[in-house]
Automatic annotation (TrEMBL), chain A:
Native source species: Streptomyces composti
Membrane topology note: Multi-pass membrane protein
UniProt record similarity statement: Belongs to the binding-protein-dependent transport system permease family.
Keyword terms: Cell membrane, Membrane, Transmembrane, Transmembrane helix, Transport
Primary subcellular site in the record, as a coarse category: membrane
N-terminal signal peptide: none
PROSITE patterns per UniProt: ABC_TM1
Protein name: Carbohydrate ABC transporter permease
Record InterPro entries: MetI-like, MetI-like_sf
Localisation per UniProt entry: Cell membrane
Automatic annotation (TrEMBL), chain B:
Keywords linked to the UniProt accession: Cell membrane, Membrane, Transmembrane, Transmembrane helix, Transport
InterPro entries: ABC_transporter_permease, MetI-like, MetI-like_sf
SUPFAM superfamilies linked to this entry: MetI-like
Family as reported in the entry's similarity comment: Belongs to the binding-protein-dependent transport system permease family.
Gene3D superfamilies from the UniProt entry: MetI-like
Lineage: Bacteria, Bacillati, Actinomycetota, Actinomycetes, Kitasatosporales
Presence of keyword Lyase: no
Protein name: Sugar ABC transporter permease
ABC transmembrane type-1 domain mapped to chain residues: 88-336
Keyword Transmembrane helix: yes
Organism superkingdom: Bacteria
Localization: Cell membrane
Membrane-traversing stretches: 21-46, 92-114, 126-147, 208-234, 263-283, 315-335
From TrEMBL, chain C:
Keywords: Signal, Transport
Protein name, as recorded: Extracellular solute-binding protein
Family affiliation: Belongs to the bacterial solute-binding protein 1 family.
Keyword Lipid biosynthesis recorded: no
InterPro entries, A to Z: Bact_solute-bd_prot1, SBP, TAT_signal
Location of the protein in the cell: Cell envelope
Length: 308, 366, 425
């Protein structure tokens, strides 16, 4: 699952307000306060237990990645390794293709994110502000395209990539991921929300459409652009099926593809849980960093995303 | 500036804008066309061809075979239909359990996290949402470890004196298990008749124990995302409304049921739609975690489509599976839209809070 | 040039790699091929024209490797051949061989020479992806092995090695259970008895994977098979039922446990970490055990006889040559070298591979006296029938076998039979 596109959130803002009821007596209120306290204690406890349940798989993975294989099998629940060993990480980084996978994932993610930011904002701006013939049709097509499930594209994308002679190359990994209807949609909605007067002024000064877009509108679009960055980064870092179908050489493996095949036992050499979990931990770190950096923006759905 | 020049200039701006509009759109249109529209057309052709994975399917290496690939899947005698039916069964149970569970869990989490009185809500919210940002490959690897026969989950169950199953290796369906617990081990003759190449008895197996792991995994990774959607909606329900309801004498449960849930209708709709679309396409977890094993009970149409094409050289069949899956998703979404819309009449209208009066209606919605 | 034409991927991003180099070196040829595809005659025709082999360029070899040792050994053999032929041969190791091969074929840029499994063979032979070079080989391969690589009467590929199933026995656990060399099981009953005796607590007496590739040996011992002499499906038979019933019985008595139930990925691993005392495995397990569990002491004996005498399964991989290879002559020459007695004996010494040619029988036994059980099985071993769609049928069989404990053998056989009948006709 991906980050929530800001749209979906803002759509929800349009909930109509019911009419408020009448006021009640003070006595009832006091009785309720006591019950309230008990309820809030129970609620807090529940919250704590649930939060622990959600976090524990990650804690266990980190702990296990520092265990020996025998220790991992014998004490799967323990959060403290019997003897701390970095063997799994050493093997990953010094003795496998893992660094290559990491580098490939980084290259693809950065390229896709940069490309999407540019293309989505260009197209979003055109749809929102530049009246051109056929805009309605383009917009309708965009919405239709968004409804196509990605799984349907698994085979045909391979055919197209192959026909374009991009199969098994970085271009094949990157370019198809640049097509991002949802991102265009987000940018369009954002641009529609800024007052046109700003651009009008710039236009009156004789600035061309690209100037207006580049030096007036785009700088104002930072919040929306950050949304695109987050979505694209996370989407392409975590992408799997496209990478499976777009390349075959071991030199082009990304983290997801490499680790998935490691897990599927393609390099079958036993269960090697510390190694696999170490890989899972490392591949989680970049998105985790992104998540914590932009946490406010992602989580403050009430204020942030909706306003967008 | 003279009055004559202004309109002219405006016109030039306009035509300039129109050109710029197309220019700005061009890269996106080319990319979307190339990688979304054309592929679908190409796959449609492959799905009615006999392309065997060698040579160019568009210049003579493939021949038109009409609906043969589709017929093999729907009416054929071989494994193709049986596997397709098996994958449909597996995925149907997956959808049937994941969609309601993730919706209810997400709503529950949102309500919890939205309560102003509780401390540490921010941290909890982070904890709930974090699984949603991590890659499905990484999470699947983690779950495979947690659910081994002597793994963390079974240790925990052990503390409760429950002997956990060998999760990911257990192909037995939970309905079959439940039946065999009450002594029904083999199907009555009536359930032996095959539908789409699979006995009715096998259709009714329920998700396998292994599939249950993927169901838990899905709820774990998606509930955070949907929690945020519900949270956004909840925050739009003004505190005033809640307050007035409290004053009205409604209990917390009644408030949830009669005010919050009805007002969350549109969000509910979105969550269920997204859930349906997402759950019918499960692929990454299967590719990483089980590749359809044990006993093909985690085989899904998406994975089957991949497997048919990319490892069995049956590209036509693979493409046909993808389109059938597409059709299923569309039909499901439309169906859900119809059902929820019918119930929607009146739901959106602002209404006065009268718990007793609204009870029957609320019961229907819960 | 229409954007929708296929041609070998050009890989501009990585000029150092084989494909890129090949595309560069054969620039003229590639351009010609492009012209042909552009006209719509189809990619299928072009390699036949250019496949004479005069175009040079390195050969690309794709293997699925069991580990570093195998990769190194194959690389050394390729280097040896290159020295003689003057043609470069480049090795890549696939993480997922079937998928990579399939995508390479579909992309029109397959490797020139590659491992091909018997299960995959017929699908590729059927769509014309494989160069049928069998007639150009002259070593004395075991006849039974060749059967797996015949398609429509033509020998398409040759086997690169061989193996059969045998019984692995953990010496220490055997001794501790009070058993001696006299107790090595010769019949089903004896096997069941010792397996029971060896199992305790979480440890199983015997393990093997729930696949035809293991259970099929018991079918053979009961006189059963997958296809009859004419290649028709013949699964739903009393012989096969007897075999499955026996396996089910061993599961029920906990003498046998599948590796999954022992938290292991495959039989060899369960045997290696001693969660099972015996395993039905092939000789590739010898290398894996030496690698992962170097201290384990074990003995390999032939599988017990069944009601109809001895029976086992044979395993092999073939050397495939792509029909779309730009240099099939060189590719076939490379294969000829790789299956030669010298090369196979080198592989045997380095990796323990069993040869695919009879000539080496005695030398191999001398080299590996402890493993002669594997060679003993060769004369009567059954292989994978070369039928298109067999891979899916075997997968179905495996899926059914996973649930054997709760199913009727007859039901399993009936459903596998109908699936196999659909592909054998």
């Amino acid at each position: 699952m991906s980050f929530v596109p800001a749209q979906t959130v803002s759509e929800q803002a349009a909930v109509e307000q019911p009419v408020a009821g009448k006021a009640g007596s003070g006595k009832a209120r006091r009785g309720r306060a006591a019950r309230h306290k008990a309820a809030s204690f129970a609620g807090g406890l529940l919250l704590l237990v649930l939060a622990l349940a959600y976090v524990s798989p990650f804690l266990i993975s980190v702990a296990t990645s520092f265990k020996t294989t025998a220790d991992a099998t014998a004490h799967p629940l323990s959060l403290v390794p019997e003897t701390v060993t970095t063997a799994a990480y050493r093997k990953l980084f010094l003795n496998s293709d893992f660094p290559l996978w990491f580098a490939n994932s980084a290259v693809v993610t950065v390229a896709v994110t940069a490309g999407r930011v540019l293309l989505d904002s260009l197209a979003g701006y055109a749809l929102a502000r530049l009246p051109f013939r056929g805009r309605g049709v383009v917009y309708a097509a965009l919405v239709a395209v968004m409804a196509v499930p990605s799984v349907v594209l698994l085979i045909p994308r391979f055919l197209v990539i192959n026909s374009l002679q991009m199969y098994d190359s970085y271009a094949g990994l990157i370019v198809p991921l640049l097509a991002d209807a949802a991102g265009i949609f987000i940018m369009k909605n954002f641009f529609e929300s800024i007052p046109p007067s700003v651009e009008e002024a710039a236009r009156m000064d004789g600035a061309g459409p690209f100037r207006v877009f580049w030096s007036v509108v785009l700088p104002m679009a930072r919040p929306a652009l950050i949304t695109i960055v987050i979505l694209s980064f996370q989407g392409s870092w975590n992408e799997l099926s496209h990478f499976i179908t777009a390349s075959q050489s071991p030199e082009l493996f990304t983290l997801t593809k490499g680790v998935a095949q490691l897990s599927a036992g393609a390099l079958s050499q036993g269960t090697q849980y510390p190694l696999k979990l170490g890989a899972a931990v490392v591949m989680t770190v970049p998105v985790a960093v992104l998540f914590f950096v932009f946490q406010r923006r992602i989580m403050n759905t009430g204020a942030g995303a909706v306003k967008e | 500036m003279s009055g004559i020049r202004l309109p002219r200039r405006r016109r030039s701006i306009h035509s300039g804008q129109a050109a710029a509009g197309w220019l700005f759109m061009a890269p996106a249109i080319v990319l979307l066309g190339l990688f979304l529209v054309i592929p679908i057309a190409m796959a449609l052709w492959v799905s009615v061809s006999d392309w065997g994975g060698r040579g160019n399917p568009f210049t003579g290496a493939a021949h038109f075979v009409g609906g043969r690939n589709y017929a093999e899947l729907l009416t054929g005698d071989g494994l193709a239909r049986r596997d397709f039916a098996t994958s449909l069964r597996n995925n149907a149970y997956y959808v049937l359990l994941v969609v309601p569970l993730q919706t209810v869990v997400a709503l529950g989490l949102a309500v919890l996290v939205n309560r102003k009185v509780l401390r540490g809500r921010g941290l909890a919210r982070t904890a709930f949402y974090f699984p949603s940002v991590t890659s499905s490959v990484a999470i699947t690897v983690v779950f495979l470890f947690l659910f081994t026969a002597s793994g963390a989950v079974n240790r925990l169950l052990g503390y409760l004196s429950i002997e956990g199953p060998n999760w990911i290796n257990d192909p037995r369906g939970v309905v079959h298990l439940a039946l065999s617990a009450v002594g029904v081990d083999s199907p009555p003759a009536a359930l032996r008749s095959p539908v789409l190449g699979l006995d009715v008895w096998d259709w009714l197996s329920g998700p396998s124990v292994a599939m249950c792991v993927f169901i838990v995994l899905a709820v774990f990774t998606t509930s955070g995302t949907f929690m945020l959607l519900f949270l956004a909606a909840l925050q739009n329900i003004s505190a005033e409304v809640e307050e007035s309801a409290q004053v009205d004498g409604a209990t917390a449960w009644q408030r949830l049921r009669h005010i919050t849930v009805p007002m969350l209708r549109p969000t509910l709709f979105t969550v269920i739609t997204l859930g349906l679309i997402g759950t019918w396409q499960v692929f990454d977890q299967i590719y990483t975690g089980s590749q359809g094993a044990p006993g093909k009970t985690t085989l899904t149409p998406a994975y089957l489509s991949y497997e048919a094409s990319f490892t069995s050289q049956e590209w036509g069949r693979g493409a046909a599976i993808a389109f059938l899956l597409f059709a299923i998703i569309v039909v499901m979404t439309l169906l859900q839209r119809m059902v929820l819309r019918e119930r929607d009449t009146g739901g959106r209208r602002p209404r006065r809070l009268r718990p007793s009066a609204t009870a029957p209606k609320g019961g229907e919605q819960a | 040039m229409s954007p929708l034409t296929f041609r070998p991927a050009q890989q501009a991003e990585r000029p150092g790699r084989g494909v890129g180099r090949r595309a560069l070196l054969t620039g003229a040829g590639a351009a010609a091929a492009l012209g042909v595809t552009g006209c719509g005659t189809g990619f299928r025709d072009s390699p036949a024209g250019s496949g004479g082999g005069q175009s040079g360029g390195p050969l690309r070899v794709l293997i699925g490797s069991s580990g570093d040792a195998e990769t190194r050994a194959v690389r050394a053999a390729l280097a040896d051949w290159s020295k003689r032929s003057g043609i470069e041969a480049r090795l890549s190791v696939a993480a997922d061989l079937p998928q990579q091969l399939s995508q390479g074929m579909a992309a029109g840029s397959p490797p020139d020479v590659f491992y091909i499994a018997p299960e995959e063979f017929a699908a590729y032979a059927g769509n014309g992806s494989l160069e049928p070079y069998g007639a150009r080989m002259y070593d004395d391969f075991y006849p039974s092995l060749l059967e797996s690589f015949r398609y429509e009467g033509k020998l398409v590929c040759v086997p690169k090695d061989s193996s059969t199933l045998a019984l692995f026995i953990n010496d220490e656990l055997w001794r501790r259970a009070g058993l001696t060399a006299k107790d090595y099981p010769g019949t089903w009953d004896e096997l069941h008895a010792v397996a029971r005796r060896l199992s305790s607590g979480r440890r199983a007496g015997l393990t093997f994977d729930p696949q035809w590739q293991r259970v099929g040996a018991f079918m053979a011992q009961a006189g059963g098979h997958l296809v009859d002499r004419r290649g028709r499906a013949d699964v739903d038979t009393p012989e096969n039922e007897k075999a499955l019933a026996f396996v089910k019985e061993m599961l029920a008595s906990k003498a046998l446990a599948y590796p999954g139930a022992l938290d292991a990925g495959w039989g060899g691993e369960a045997f290696g970490n001693e969660s099972a005392a015996m395993a039905v495995e092939g000789n590739w397990t010898v290398g894996a055990l030496a690698n992962d569990f170097p201290d384990l002491k074990y003995t390999v004996v032939p599988l017990p006889k069944g009601p109809e005498g001895p029976g086992t399964l044979q395993f092999t991989n073939g050397w495939g040559v792509a029909a779309d290879s730009a240099n099939t002559t060189a590719a076939v020459d490379l294969v000829r070298y790789l299956v030669s007695a010298n090369a196979q004996m080198t592989f045997a010494k380095k990796l323990g591979f069993m040869p695919s040619i009879e000539l080496l029988d005695e030398r191999w036994r001398k080299e590996f006296p402890k493993q002669s059980a594997f060679l003993d099985g060769v004369p009567y071993a059954q292989g994978v029938p070369p039928v298109k769609g067999i891979k899916e049928v075997l997968a179905e069989f495996g899926a059914e076998l996973e649930g054997l404990a709760g199913k009727k053998p007859k039901d399993i056989l009936r459903s596998v039979h109908s699936a196999l009948k659909a592909v054998t006709g």
